[in-house]
Amino acid sequence: MSALGALAMTLLLVVPAGAGLGLLRPADYRRGARLSIAATLVSLLAAVTLIWARPETNLYLQVDDFNIYLIVLNNFVSFTTSLFSATYIAHELETGKLTPNYLRFYHAMYQALVFAMNLGLLANNIGLLWVAVELATLVTVLMVGLYRTPAALEAAWKYFILGSLGIALALFGTILIYLAAQPVMGQGLPAMAWDRLLVHASKFDPALLNLAFVFLLLGYGTKAGLVPLHAWLPDAHAEGPTPISAVLSGLLLNVALYAVLRFKMLMSANPSALAPGPLMIMLGLLSLLFAGLMLYRRGDIKRLFAYSSIEHMGIMSFAFGMGGPLANFAGLLHMTMHSLTKSAIFFAVGHISQVKGTQRISTIRGLTATHPLLGWGLVAGVVAIAGMPPFGVFMSEFLVVSSTFARQPWLALPLVIGLLLAFGTLLWRLHGLAFGVPDNAPAVPIKASIWPMLIHLGLVLLAGIWLPGPLVVWFHHVAVLLG
Amino acid sequence: MHSLAFDIAHALAGSMVVLSFLLLYQDRVYALLNVFALHSLALALAVGWQAYLQDAHHLYVTAVVALLFKAIAIPTALHRIVRRLDIHRTLEVVGGVGRDMLAGAALVALAIMVMLPVTEGSNALARQDLAFALAVVLLGLLLMVNRHNAISLVIGFMSLENGLVLAAAGALGMPLVVEISVAFSVLIALIVIGVFLFRIRERFDSVDMQAMDTFREGRRK
Prior knowledge:
The complex is a heterodimer.
Chain A: H1 2-24, H2 29-52, H3 65-94, H4 100-122, H5 126-144, H6 150-185, H7 194-200, H8 206-223, H9 232-239, H10 242-268, H11 276-294, H12 301-322, H13 324-356, H14 367-370, H15 372-385, H16 392-407, H17 409-435, H18 451-465, H19 469-482
Helix pairs in contact in A: 1-2, 1-4, 2-3, 2-4, 3-4, 3-10, 3-13, 4-5, 4-10, 5-6, 5-10, 6-8, 6-9, 8-10, 9-10, 9-12, 10-12, 10-13, 11-12, 11-17, 12-13, 12-17, 13-15, 13-16, 13-18, 13-19, 15-17, 15-18, 16-17, 16-18
Chain B: H1 4-24, H2 29-54, H3 57-85, H4 97-118, H5 124-146, H6 150-170, H7 176-204, H8 209-220
């Protein structure tokens, strides 16, 4: 069994890397898009195989109960996004916003990003984890700047500087973790392997661990878009190609948060180290409230949903900071639901902005009348992300709130205020977007790919109504692991 | 441990901190690049000396990489970019040199006060190196915060990375993976930077970040 697992694990890395290199060669753009879809499909199948066939953990890579579900989620959303990219980018080519050369570059970079995220999730070595996040950062910087407009360049440059800064801080934290481990575990690779670090963590010097965690939280927190280090996120989302916004929000933020959680587990394993919870709760609440307030005056539809991503990363960070089986369960569920919902919203928004030729909210009115399918898709997505039943996000947010009430009632107050703020603003915006009086501006006809959005929303709805028993048991198990 | 070997290591790491200070007040592009080359040279020597002391052969690789890429290739490439983009103007220093120096001194004090108590268990060499490395990182940050020019930002970022490599070299027996990847990432970063500098110049007719900021204000209206 583990041979099959090892094969699947190798495929997860080799396929995107190979496809990325292959796509750099000049080719017809249709073939490029098809190759990209095929590669992500193979990765998805490999990821699903890993559920049954676990490979042996080695010094570099591992598959355990925690990362397996993120790996499957990651490759699933990569697959649907590559489907969406195919039509989205074909349209950009037709309207002349991109040239075939850039298109080739886009698909190659997309695969490189999938590779980097898979590597980050599979990494057992904390150095390797860092390399993967850095690679993902550099790749997404190039993609955000793809349109070469002044705004896109500015967004990419800001992202580059802030992202590199975060990455640099995270490396310093990584070095400090090694330094804490080295007296206990000796020199060399084992002292960077996460599973062995966890075993020995109780003997590490707590002061060094504390310092390391502060650096790691700030470093990877920058990548996760936590306030006050979020400044790159709205710009990068608004100016880059929409499929990249979907992947950034849905997946890359998760990878960064995943990295933080791995180190949080190390901290929890050492009784005399600082409790990481309060720090994460503080950053989480700050992000939630800040994003809730910022949502109000957004004029750009992609920027609006980018702030909503900050809000949701805040909720997750809060939930994991609270800790305990119930809050962790809610956090894990929320990570999944947010990924699926937010990428579905960006799929809808991508096509909507192509149809309308603009991203300005004030010029997009009455979508349900003019474009029923896209309009109602957006309605469903926004209703879901705002946290209304019967969608899955409602359930996870409800769990976060109720577990907070049970344990720290006074923390529930800012949490609920933040949630309500975001809820109100999103629905208010949605009203104009979906049900306002449509203007008579000519709409650009497009070939939209609706399926990725419908599949995502369907899954979120299903999760809100009925979570399969084995999945619940498994989430519980991981939640206990997280401590 | 208080021997000549220790003193040399100390002097090399310390000279990086001094060079970081020099970076803070350079107001001409070429001078900034040259000081950065010196900074990287000091890094290469410091890492090489660590390799000799620790008898760690892989650190020689890191030292050579630092020498080739950071002390020679990157400054040369940036020199060429600057010439091609025709940026001969002086770089303005926001807030004045005096304030920068004071802030820098405070940051170094902070680095030493944070690192020394925390690393009491480690050996003296690693402790000093780590304190210096954090100082270099913080000074790099200060440089990035204080300048509006794209070139200064890039140099600030790279001097910060030099500090990280110094920290990694000081940690006994840190595996090679990280160092190679750092070198690699710097290389990619250079490509990214090069591409961007050209594009920014192309679009804004300047590499001054303030041009970008005012542009954004205009968009928000």
